[in-house]
Amino acid sequence: MTPIPALNPAAAPREILLGAQALSKSYGGLRAVNAASLDLFPGEVVALVGDNGAGKSTFVKMLSGVIAPDAGTLTMSGRDVRFNSPAQAREAGIETLHQSLALVDVFNVPENIFLGRELHTRRFGVLPVLDKAAMRTRTIDLLQRIGANLPAIDSPVRSMSGGQRQAVAIARLLLNEVRLLIMDEPMAALGVDEGRKVLDLIVELRARGLTVLIISHNLEHVFGVADRICVMKNGKIVGIVDTAVASHDQIVRMIVSGAMSRP
Ligand SMILES: Nc1ncnc2c1ncn2[C@@H]1O[C@H](COP(=O)(O)OP(=O)(O)OP(=O)(O)O)[C@@H](O)[C@H]1O
Ligand SMILES: [Mg+2]
Fold this sequence. Notes:
By secondary structure, the protein is an alpha/beta fold. The chain folds into 2 domains: 1-93 and 177-263, Rossmann fold (3-Layer(aba) Sandwich), CATH 3.40.50.300; 104-176, no CATH class. It contains 8 helices and 12 strands. It has helices spanning 56-63, 86-91, 109-113, 132-145, 162-173, 192-207, 219-225, 248-257; strands spanning 18-27, 30-40, 45-49, 71-76, 79-81, 94-97, 120-123, 127-130, 180-184, 211-215, 228-233, 236-242. The chain has a 6-stranded mixed sheet with strand order 6-9-10-3-11-12, with helices on both faces. Strand 4 and strand 5 form a beta hairpin. Helix 4 (132-145) crosses helix 5 (162-173). It is globular. Bound molecules: adenosine-5'-triphosphate and magnesium ion.
């Protein structure tokens, strides 16, 4: 039987950017992640929440090629994929922003963004030299793309605030063709204002069509930025709820009880 085409485009199923099906990972006798499934759609922000040790970091590490799952599958745009390294996930457009941002303090913004992939030009048509002007222009362009306003891109990043450094790290990731950005507790070390700026940055990235998966313990941030909230406990996904219809109490109950709960 031929399937009936959807007449109403809004009712057509959305394409899944990255799908995780029943991913599991054990450490010795401990099931850090137990058959966790999650579909991520283009242009959405999903927050992953749960108590310490719930399995959040382990789960996202399986999405980004850092850890190989013991069982389960990943699909991208409908095809089975397997990442044997972060580099392979990166090639597929999946980037992770680690808490240790990996910036070089004494370098300025363009130097950090192009670290290891510097642009070159030829002086007098022969001698290869760094193309500082081009890197600076690309840097300004990248920062504009994420709506980040940095006062002095030619100063060492050491003199910048936590939020500004995050912007540099994100701009650096965007040099590649990113489709999914994973952030493991990006706001943990930031002050209130700085955290707010990173939230603004996430909203900006979503507006540009990126998918963001963010781990956070701060439910205020989660409710401020996420379209959906995914709760984990003891390695299992307890439930996934739309932020628009979720309540703060409901999420707390789910985190604590490990069972689905009503708003
Ligand atoms: N490399 C490892 N070796 C052994 N056990 C590990 C390893 N990584 C994680 N675990 C264990 O797996 C469980 C899940 O850890 P994970 O780091 O994924 O939790 P989490 O939800 O990210 O917690 P947190 O909110 O504290 O960051 C924990 O019990 C942890 O001790
Ligand atoms: Mg963690």
